[in-house]
Each structure stands twice: as structure tokens, then as C-alpha cells.
Write a structure and sequence with these properties.
The complex is a heterodimer of chains A (318) and B (322).
Chain A (H helix, E strand, L loop, with lengths): L4 H26 L14 H10 L5 E3 L5 H6 L4 H8 L23 E3 L7 H14 L6 E6 L6 H12 L4 E7 L2 E2 L2 E2 H4 L16 E5 L3 H19 L2 E6 L17 H9 L2 H11 L4 H24 L5 H5 L5
Parallel strand pairs in A: 1-2, 1-3, 3-4, 4-8, 7-8
Antiparallel strand pairs in A: 5-6
Helix pairs in contact in A: 1-2, 1-10, 1-11, 2-8, 4-11, 5-6
Chain B lengths: L2 H15 L3 E5 L15 H9 E3 L4 H13 L3 E5 L6 H12 L2 H4 L9 E6 L24 E3 L4 H13 L4 E6 L22 E4 L5 E4 L3 H13 L6 E4 L2 E3 L3 H11 L2 E8 L4 H13 L8 E5 L8 H7 L3 H13 L1
Parallel strand pairs in B: 1-2, 1-3, 3-4, 4-6, 5-6, 8-9, 8-11, 11-12
Antiparallel strand pairs in B: 5-10, 7-9
Helix pairs in contact in B: 1-6, 3-4, 7-11, 8-9
Classes of the chains: A alpha/beta (318), B alpha/beta (322).
Chain lengths: 318, 322
């Protein structure tokens, strides 16, 4: 699929924003301003942007521990996401959720999820609710190759297939479950091959090519929305960074990493735009704008207050 | 009416009242559930609302969470409480945390019903009362009604509650009989109930130990002893006010439960009493619970692990004579 020029530019801008956001997070970490842990999706931005560009704005999204790309691709407010990660009261969840537990129902973003594979049944249940109500919305859940070894993956696909639920399972296969390479963790190697066992249609796409991702996702979503039942889409991608901060990446070679940078999704998209005659200066400008937006958001968030003790101890029950 | 029928009627009434209520679990359709609790509901409400699942506890519990987040009111049945171990991730990390961690943006109005406890001969993996295991999970309401009347009122309230509620039923209670009010009957989820007032001591209990304690009361009446039987009903939150009121009235406390003694509900209740009512106590708090042993299969052995009527009578005597 070839995007119209403006669409591809928008995708590139969005991917730049996600990249700049996480680069800023890394900086905040090193300055000691960001606590806990955080999982970056550097290298995987095209997966989030491609799928979410193909989705309807009211399709429910369910994400995982590596969710910054999904959040920003859906168009959540940058500053409110930043504040959430910095634990501030003006964040989406008032600082209670952080990166791995962030929800924005008004944007049809059901939530990120800190348990590997934990979002799969939730998405499947959301799809059940959509079917129950006769909605044409679809539930889209992102997970990694690691999660495809959890029982919830197999249980969810089985039930979704039995009941023809409107759910798109998107596996971002970035080759590693933390440090464990997919060859050592996934029998058979291909996550999409597992769909056959549950009679699900499946497809595989190049997760570094945002247009290829969007094309595959459009096709899959059309099928799911038509009532045909669930679909498993595997996106072959790579995280250039470590699993989380402080990951020394001793489980893979520098040569491999260098080769994969050659296939970086931002670089591929940039080359496409250059080939279409977009001047380099305009692309540079998009990158600079993204960095500035992120910088401004971080500055504002760092000024924001924390919730009080009283607020923190309240609200366990509805 | 049997306890199991009262559960069935509560479900039927709520399914009729609110089209967003649906049930999911194993063998709950034509089979009517492993203990016959959902009998007839499939025929009346059909496969969408009586959703028979494969044997996938963690994921169908997680599906209930997802469906509840989008506004439905699922009622999950876990066939034996021991199987809750398989669903614990979704209960602990999703159901209990979502409302809080997402800062109130979403609710999880779901119910999880499950029979705990031993009925004789089910053995180690089908007999445990795991009530206390759930106590340290913020965000869950936990109730353990002991009579047919209670379970109807509690279950109906639980289904209407906007939070995840675990309703602990009991295999030994299903065939118990009792009066049940017809039609709309709701009970609060956070209140204990004095089932039989008394003066000598407070016996605090719940679930299948309640009828045992009521039987003990009859047995010791001829000795001139008059214990007050307080059914805790709500385990999370504990109804402190009612507990303390009874303790202050009688000055002596015996806690009886089917969960393991160590770290049981009784441990929590004892600590609360020590913190708040020490001045009213005329004797140390006594506890009876399951031995810290898996429940053996043999009927002959099971009774060595669980509190029996004779054990309770003995404890009552000790407490009285202290």
C-alpha cells in the first residue's frame, strides 16, 4: 500500500514524536528525574503507527508494558502521558499507573498492562462486550513474542475463535523476550503459525515498514469488522534499545544491532519520503519539532504537583 | 429452599432485571454447573448470556474483567475454589487494581462466585477454603454468605455493585435449607449478622462453619451456656463495628473457620480485637481453623484436619472455664 504523501508525512512525524519522547525519557532517567523502570519501543514505532493509522478512532486499544508508541500513535495528549510517567497529578492516571498502567477511555485506549500476556484476555473480553452490544468496533491488542508463550495467549485465541469475537491480535515480534531470543522460547519460531491451531486467519508483515504494517492491518481489520472473527497479525520488528533501562544487552552481538539499525523504521520511512521528493530540510524540521514538543511537555510536567496523601489513599473502590 | 436454589434464583432475577448481566464459566449450560447451581438458566437465557467456557480459568476471568470495563456485568463461576489459583493473576492484577491504578476512569463491576470448603472425599485439590488468601488483595470485596437467605440478598447486591466482588459459596452449604424472601431482597456487602444472640461468649464464624456453630449452641444450651453466634458474612471489609460490639458485650471470643489457622481470617480478626477491645476481654481470644495440612481425600482422615462439632464444644468449654 502506498500512502498519500501527507499520510506518510503524518506517520513519520508521529514516529519521530515517539522516538523523541523515549529519548527524552532516557535523559530524565539518567538525571534521576524518572523512577522505576520503563520499556522503550525504539525501533518498533512503525508497528504502533501503522496499525493505529489503519484502525478506526473508536476501535479499543489494549497495550502492554511497552506501550509508549501505542499511546502516542493514538493521539493521547503528550503532556498528560509525560506527567503520568513522571508520577504527577495531572497525568492520565494521577501518577498511580505510570508507563505500564495507563488508561485513557475517552481516546478508546483501554490500558497498558504490566503483566506479560495480561492484556490478551482483557481485549478478548472487551471484544465479547462489543459483540454482545452489536457494535462495529474492534478490540486491538498489542503483545510481544514473549507473551505468545503465556497460557492467556492460547486460551484467548481459542475462545475468540470459538465465538468469532471482533478482536485483532497484533504480535510485535521484536525477537527477544527480555533477554531470551525467540528461537529459544517459541517452538517453531513463528508466532503467526500458532493461529492455525485455533483456526484463526493470520498474516505476517514487515514491522519496520509503516505502509506494509498499515496495509496488513487494514486487511485484517476489514475481515474482523465484517464479523468473520478474530485475526492474528505478526509484525517482524526489532527493539534497538534494551528490554528496560539498565539492560546491558549482552545477549546479542553489536554486529546484529548495527545491521538492524540499517533497517530502522524511521530511516526506512525517511528514505521513502526522500524518494518521493520531500526535501530533507522538511523532514529534519519534523524531527526538530518533535524534540521541541517533548522538551516543552517534560518541562511542564516537571513543574506539576504530586497527588496528596489523602488522594493517594482514596479511590480503591468505585 | 436449598442454598443452591437461592443462588439460582438470585442469578435468574438479576439476569431478568438487567440485560448487561451475563454468566460465564465451565459446564454452566445444559449441565447446570458442577453443583447444579445454574440449572435451567441456559434454557431460559440462551448461550450469549449463559456463556459456557472451555477450561481456561485465567482467561475467562480476564475476559470478564475486559467485558466489565466496557460496562457489562459478568458473573464468573469458578467450579472449585482451589481452581481460583488458575485465575488469580487476573483477579489480583487486573480486577482488583484497575479502578485504582487507572485513577477511577474505569470500573470493574464483576462477580466471581466459587464454592470453597470440604464436603467429604473431594481431596486436596478440590476442598480448600482459600478465603484468607484473598484478604491481602486491595480492590476486592469478599463475602461468604452462609444461609440461603443471605446468599440471595448478597449475590443480588454483589451483581449490582460497581466493584469486583468474590462470593465464596460452599459445597457443604448447597444442600442446606432455609427461608428465603421472595423477589427484590438485597443485603449490604459489608455487614456481619448476629444469627443468634447470646451472653457468654462471641463465636465469630462464616461459611460452612456457621451451621456447625449454631448446632454447638443447641448442644451447650443444656449446660446453661449461651454463646452469641456472629456470622461475619463480609470478610473484606470486616464489619469491625459489629465484631467489637459483640466482643464488648460478652468479653470472650472464639473464632471458627474452615481456612487454615495460620494467617486465617481469624488471625486478622484476633489482631483487630487485640488492638481495639483488649480492655473488654475476660479471656484470651481462641481460634479454631483447619490444620496447616492439605485436605486428605479419605473421609476418615478429613475430619482430623477440619474443625468438628466436638472441637468447637471443647473450645467453648475451655473458654467458659478460663
Amino acid at each position: 500500500m502506498e500512502f498519500p504523501e501527507q499520510t506518510l508525512l503524518d506517520c513519520y512525524a508521529r514516529m519521530c514524536l515517539i522516538r523523541a519522547f523515549e529519548e527524552k525519557l532516557a535523559e530524565l532517567f539518567s538525571q534521576g528525574l524518572l523512577g522505576g523502570t520503563s520499556h522503550f519501543c525504539i525501533g518498533q514505532e512503525a508497528c504502533a503507527v501503522g496499525v493505529i493509522t489503519a484502525a478506526r478512532e473508536d476501535d479499543w486499544l489494549i497495550s502492554n508494558h511497552r506501550g509508549h508508541g501505542h499511546l502516542l500513535a493514538r493521539g493521547l495528549e503528550l503532556q498528560k502521558v509525560m506527567s503520568e510517567l513522571l508520577g504527577r497529578s495531572d497525568g492520565y492516571c494521577g501518577g498511580r499507573g505510570g508507563s505500564q498502567h495507563l488508561s485513557a477511555p475517552e481516546k478508546f485506549f483501554l490500558g497498558t498492562n504490566g503483566i506479560t500476556g495480561g492484556g490478551l484476555p482483557i481485549a478478548t473480553g472487551a471484544a465479547l462486550a462489543l459483540q454482545y452490544r452489536g457494535s462495529t468496533q474492534v478490540a486491538i491488542v498489542f503483545f510481544g513474542d514473549g507473551a505468545s508463550n503465556q497460557g492467556t495467549f492460547h486460551e484467548s485465541l481459542n475462545m475468540a475463535s470459538l465465538w468469532k469475537l471482533p478482536v485483532l491480535y497484533v504480535c510485535e515480534n521484536n525477537r527477544y523476550g527480555m533477554s531470551n531470543p525467540v528461537e529459544k522460547a517459541c517452538a517453531g519460531g513463528r508466532v503467526s503459525a500458532r493461529a492455525q491451531a485455533y483456526c484463526l486467519p493470520a498474516d505476517t508483515a514487515d514491522g519496520s515498514d509503516v505502509e506494509a504494517v498499515a496495509q496488513a492491518a487494514s486487511k485484517a481489520l476489514e475481515q474482523v469488522r465484517s464479523g468473520a472473527g478474530p485475526f492474528l497479525l505478526e509484525l517482524l520488528t526489532y527493539r534497538h534499545c534494551g528490554h528496560s533501562k539498565n539492560d546491558p544487552r549482552i545477549y546479542r552481538s553489536k554486529t546484529e544491532e548495527q545491521q538492524m539499525w540499517e533497517r530502522d523504521c524511521l530511516r526506512i520511512t525517511r528514505d521513502k519520503l526522500l524518494r518521493r521528493g520531500i526535501p530533507d530540510s522538511r523532514l529534519e524540521q519534523l524531527k526538530t519539532q518533535a524534540a521541541e514538543q517533548v522538551q516543552a511537555a517534560a518541562q511542564q510536567s516537571l513543574q506539576a504537583p504530586f497527588s496528596s496523601r489523602e488522594e493517594t489513599l482514596a479511590g480503591v473502590f468505585a | 429452599m436449598f442454598y443452591s436454589q437461592a443462588v439460582n434464583i438470585a442469578l435468574e432475577e438479576e439476569l431478568t432485571r438487567d440485560p448487561d448481566v451475563f454468566i460465564l464459566g465451565e459446564d454452566i449450560g445444559i449441565y447446570g454447573g458442577a453443583f447444579g447451581v445454574t440449572k435451567g438458566l441456559y434454557e431460559k437465557f440462551g448461550p450469549q448470556r449463559i456463556r459456557e467456557t472451555p477450561i481456561s480459568e485465567n482467561s475467562f476471568t480476564g475476559m470478564a474483567v475486559g467485558a466489565a470495563m466496557l460496562g457489562l456485568r459478568p458473573v464468573v463461576e469458578i467450579m472449585f475454589m482451589d481452581f481460583l489459583a488458575l485465575a488469580l493473576d487476573q483477579l489480583l492484577n487486573s480486577a482488583g487494581k484497575i479502578h485504582y491504578m487507572y485513577n477511577g476512569q474505569l470500573k470493574v463491576p464483576m462477580v466471581l462466585r466459587t464454592p470453597g470448603g470440604a464436603k467429604g472425599g473431594y481431596g486436596p485439590s478440590h476442598s480448600q477454603m482459600l478465603s484468607s488468601m484473598l484478604l491481602g488483595i486491595p480492590g476486592l470485596k469478599i463475602v461468604a454468605p452462609s444461609t440461603p437467605r443471605q446468599v440471595k440478598g448478597i449475590l443480588k447486591s454483589a451483581i449490582r455493585d460497581d466493584n469486583p466482588v468474590v462470593v465464596i459459596e460452599n459445597k457443604r452449604l448447597y444442600p442446606q435449607q432455609g427461608e428465603v424472601p421472595e423477589g427484590e431482597y438485597l443485603l449490604p456487602l459489608d455487614k456481619a449478622e448476629v444469627l443468634s444472640p447470646g451472653t457468654d461468649m462471641s463465636i465469630l464464624t462464616y461459611s460452612a462453619m456457621t451451621p456447625l456453630c449454631l448446632a454447638v449452641k443447641e448442644a451447650v444450651r443444656e449446660l446453661g451456656w449461651d454463646p452469641e453466634i456472629v456470622d461475619l458474612v463480609s470478610l473484606q471489609p470486616l464489619d469491625r463495628e459489629s465484631i467489637f460490639k459483640s466482643v464488648r458485650k460478652t468479653g470472650r471470643v472464639l473464632i471458627v473457620e474452615e481456612a487454615c489457622l495460620t494467617g486465617g481470617i481469624g488471625a486478622e480478626v484476633s489482631a483487630l480485637i487485640a488492638e481495639h477491645c483488649l480492655d473488654a476481654l475476660e479471656a484470651p481470644v481462641m481460634r479454631l481453623g483447619a490444620a496447616d495440612v492439605p485436605i486428605p481425600s479419605s473421609l476418615a482422615l478429613e475430619k482430623y484436619v477440619l474443625p468438628q462439632i466436638e472441637d468447637i464444644v471443647k473450645a467453648v468449654q475451655q473458654l467458659r472455664e478460663y
